[in-house]
């Protein structure tokens, strides 16, 4: 898996200072995996199906669908009447950025290479290219903004879910895995890998 993820990561936004077209849309790419019918909108049942596709159990998939769509729907539909199907509009996903995050996505949803590298320079103390569970907790704590309780919960949920789904056999969350999740390529790989195992 590491080799495949590494290949995916190498095709993600460049770490140079330039701003490519790919970088402009990286947050949208991250979310687009869950748009199962590719209509530009993610409904709760699509979020659920996306989590199931990458190997999450029924409980995590259900909770994630509820938590994510309830939390992000209104933010991505500014000025619109509330929709009780809680759709997330991918084109506006940058409006749903929460506080107390890593800053790897900027306010326009672009990938910020410097912020990504800082995660591992500051917190990957055991191995330079991976985070232990303890180091991940330290990362979350260092990103907390005062009294930003919603941001704390959102960041903890995102990173804990990523760690539980993608840690390796040694309990490490690899750098290439984290980079691949930012552009959504990891989700596609996990879905294909899971489908391949089912066929065997």
Automatic annotation (TrEMBL):
UniProt keyword Transmembrane present: yes
Keyword S-adenosyl-L-methionine listed: no
Region listing for Disordered, in residue ranges: 1-22
Keywords: Membrane, Transmembrane, Transmembrane helix
Spans through the membrane: 53-72
Gene Ontology molecular function: calcium ion binding; monooxygenase activity
Family: Belongs to the caleosin family.
Name the UniProt record assigns to this protein: Probable peroxygenase 5
Organism: Cucumis melo (Muskmelon)
